[in-house]
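Backbone-to-sequence.
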């Protein structure tokens, strides 16, 4: 039975960890908005940008167009809905779309940090992984540079979140079914299926 003093120390450690992680999240956003600042000068330039804008207009006229497979012949109602909501909020202000893309990219970088920390229990490596992702090492920055890239950013968010909860369930619950982490993993996996059919590849990890 833990003593009140031990319980208090644990609570303080958790609070301190949350503060540090929130600070790191803010740092990632600062880096992201600085690193991708030039992107904000872009307009709608990619062919898919105009396809998404046209589709958003269709959704406004007929809500069931959210489930349409017109775009790339794929079933992606969640990105369609998100882009429609963006269109309602930003209309044709391209700068606002890019700001939102950068913000979601920074969320993904933070999720990479959480994923690595959950797996390896090593904060230094987790921080480096998050920073490398934020700086778009590899091919991760391309989606930030097009308005329509939000679809790739969203599927990345859902994939990373699914993996985090799956690993937490394995480590904390021994892979037990119907525990909180398993249910959250299943929930985000379902959302990922509504974003891109490639999400089925996650089954290979489970």
């Amino acid at each position: 039975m833990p003593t009140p003093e031990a319980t208090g120390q644990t609570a303080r450690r958790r609070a301190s960890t949350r503060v540090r992680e929130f600070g790191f999240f803010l740092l990632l956003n600062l880096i992201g908005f600085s690193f991708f600042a030039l992107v904000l000068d872009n307009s709608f330039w990619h062919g898919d940008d105009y396809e998404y804008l046209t589709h958003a207009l269709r959704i406004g006229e007929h809500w069931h167009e959210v489930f349409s497979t017109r775009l790339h012949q794929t079933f992606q109602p969640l990105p369609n809905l998100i882009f429609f909501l963006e269109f309602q909020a930003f209309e044709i202000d391209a700068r606002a779309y890019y700001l939102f893309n950068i913000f979601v990219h920074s969320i993904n970088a933070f999720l990479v940090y959480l994923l690595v920390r959950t797996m390896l229990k090593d904060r230094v490596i987790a921080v480096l992984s998050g920073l490398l992702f934020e700086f778009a090492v590899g091919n991760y920055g391309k989606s930030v540079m097009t308005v329509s890239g939000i679809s790739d950013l969203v599927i990345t968010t859902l994939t990373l979140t699914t993996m985090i909860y799956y690993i937490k369930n394995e480590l904390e619950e021994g892979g037990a079914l119907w525990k909180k982490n398993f249910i959250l993993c299943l929930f985000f996996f379902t959302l990922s299926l509504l974003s891109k059919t490639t999400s089925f590849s996650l089954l290979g990890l489970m």
